[in-house]
Amino acid sequence: MSKRCYYEVLSVERTATDGELKTAFRRLAMKYHPDRNPGDKDCEAHFKEAKEAYETLSDNQKRSLYDRHGHAAFEQGMGAGGGFHADVGDIFGDIFSDIFGGNRGTRQRRGSDLRYILELDLEEAVFGVAKTIDVPTLAGCDKCDGSGSSDGKLSTCNTCQGHGRVRMQNGIFSVQQVCPHCAGSGKTIANPCKTCHGEGRVRREKKLEVKIPAGVDTGDRVRLSGEGEAGPAGAPAGDLYVEVQVREHAIFQRQQDDLYCEVPIRFSQAALGADLNVPTLGGEATIKISAETQTGKLFKLRGKGVKNVRNGHVGDLLCRVVVETPVKLSKQQKELLQQFEDSFGGDHAAHTPRASSWLDSVKQFWDRVTT
Fold this sequence. Notes:
- By secondary structure, the protein is of the alpha+beta class.
- The protein folds into 4 domains: 6-86, DnaJ domain (Helix Hairpins, Orthogonal Bundle), CATH 1.10.287.110; 114-246, Heat shock protein DnaJ, cysteine-rich domain (Chaperone, DNAj Protein, Chain A); 253-324, HSP40/DNAj peptide-binding domain; 331-370, no CATH class.
- It is 28% helix and 26% strand.
- It contains 11 helices and 15 strands.
- A 4-stranded mixed sheet has the order 10-11-15-14. The protein has a 3-stranded mixed sheet with strand order 1-9-8.
- A hairpin with a 2-residue loop joins strand 10 and strand 11.
- Helix 2 runs antiparallel to helix 3.
- The radius of gyration is 37 Å and the shape is elongated.
């Protein structure tokens, strides 16, 4: 069976750049790599074909020969032989460095990110607030300025010989990994600091001020860059994520950008109508209760909700009225209520629309059950 064109194998043009070749091979390697497809001979063959194509085209000298003579350049001994002489570990170190977080050079391990739960009142979340918080963390050691060394001297790591990476053999593949001894820095501390024992960081409580923007809600986060745990031996610090938790409010409930509240009214106000003063987060406002208002009716105050922290949209305040039954009535009040009740005679239907419709539904239900 004749070999396919290397450019066809990688699905690239003949003018493809080194970056385009690398991207194409990475895509195929992730799809056909034997470790991802154990025992699949077809995937193994595709992987070897893609590797051979990438090895040839990523080498300028081999690519020039291939462009002039095709596969014959190697089959007739005009260039490199048909075997794979390149170190597979070098290929994978380049191709998969972004995927697995590797780095061809030395790299220090970054400090861990931290999360802090900040409880706020609803008013603080709606209008924004500045808070001072105490965060337990690993901070840079003051004694050694975070270096971990008592005298500032570092030695070349004996494990990786200063490269920051070590080569691990896995079957036919040789893969590079971060050196476990120096964590990728390529250096070790000759004389560790006695305060931090060579770590370059100590545990302490750090006081920080965090500015919470207006309109945040439970689950929103504010990132403080570089305020997480300090990295070991002077490595960069991680970030601190302050996560907002809004406490329950005695009056208002929040749903996205809208606020809801219940407003108790007397049945005389509900029947005759009234003007009521209601609280908002920005002060008092007036709602007009229309005559014959029923429990549960919503009255909307536009623009009295929450300003969205992302798009600036301002929600509304929705007041749900609840008609209360009077309690602790005097004898006179009871007599007046009885007179009011007697005034309906036997014609309640015209004055109690919901009760009448409910009774009709009950009657229909019993008719169906007893039929």
